[in-house]
Amino acid sequence: MGRHAARTGLQYLLVLFAAVSLNFLLPRLAPGDAIDYLLPPDQSGAVSPEQRQELLAQFGLDGSLAEQYGRYLQGLARGDLLVSVRFGRPVGDVLGERLGWTLLLVGSTLVASSLLGSWLGFRAGWSRGSARDAGSLTGVMAVDSLPPFFVGMLLLVVFSVQLRWFPTFGALPPGSAEGVDLVVEVLRRLALPFVTLTLASVGPMYLVARSAMVTELEEDYVLMAEAKGLGPAAVRRHARRNALMPVSTVAMVGLGTLVGGATVVETVFSYPGLGRLVYDSVLARDFPLLQGAFLLLITGVIVANFLNDLLYPLLDPRTRHPLTDPA
């Protein structure tokens, strides 16, 4: 187990290094002058050569590409992600203020969509070919085909504008709510983005869980268990455990897609998370903040997949000792 963790950790460190390098290169390979991305379009031509050089040095864009890369890695080691053009503050501070809200939204959505999608998928796979299977498949695919922004706007119109059950924007109430009242208000503002993102994420989890259960039910050990007289509940329990591996993989791999969907959902609901921050940073041409946000999101996805690889031996003991070819 220790060797497996060390080998897997080394692989993911290499992936993280490649992602960090790519995050450095992509903005610098974009067409045009770097100053064009740091100033409004009507001001980029009015900058003197001295001011231009000062701006480039402030944001780590002066010198050769190799020198910039070296300073970039040194800054990462110190936790220095430069200064946000829009906010005039360190990028790390701005990201830290928004990270908690995205973790709350994406984390709760990941748990809910994984549990709901796998539960529906396992039930459908167990009763494959039945009316319940066809009905659940049709319903889940119908919901999954709707764009998240459309679902979000529909929920806003119905539950916020017409029924007035939930607030239309934000994550914190105005004023000075404290204690239980503050928690209730935060949950009320989380409810609609959470439902929107969950509905957009259930489909892939359902399909993988259903397919995994159908595959497991065709294995020889299921036939053997039934021949020994095990009841349906016991057989279903064994098949469900073996079907969990692809489900856990999709949950972790889908984290990147979930974060991408959070950008749209947070924008629709004006929810102050990283997704909304990325959207506003694109409009403001905030080059350092975009780079820092992408680095944070990429690192989160890589860490989640690393933890999923470590979880494999717990779900399937066969992966603890890989089989070797006797020849």
Q: What share of the residues does DSSP label as strand, in percent?
A: under 5%
Query: What summary fits the major beta sheet?
Result: none
Return the CATH topology. MetI-like fold
User: Count of helices?
Assistant: 11
How many beta strands in the DSSP annotation? 0
User: How many domains comprise the coordinates?
Assistant: 1
Overall mean pLDDT: 80
Overall SS class: mainly alpha
- CATH superfamily membership: MetI-like
Architecture per CATH nomenclature, i.e. the level-2 architecture: Orthogonal Bundle
**What is the general shape?**
globular
Give the CATH level 1 class. Answer: Mainly Alpha
* Helix fraction bin: over 70%
Helix and strand pattern: HHHHHHHHHHH
Distance separating the two termini = 25 Å
Q: Give the low-confidence spans.
A: 323-327
The radius of gyration computed from the alpha-carbon positions, rounded to a whole number of angstroms, is 24 Å
Word description of this protein:
The chain has 327 residues and is an all-alpha fold. The protein has a single domain (2-30, 81-320), classed as MetI-like fold (Orthogonal Bundle). Helices cover 74% and strands 0% of the residues. The chain contains eleven helices and no strands. Helix 4 (91-126) crosses helix 7 (179-217). The longest helix is centred in the middle third of the chain and has 39 residues, at 179-217. The radius of gyration is 24 Å and the shape is globular. The relative contact order is 0.14. The model is unreliable at 323-327 (pLDDT under 50).
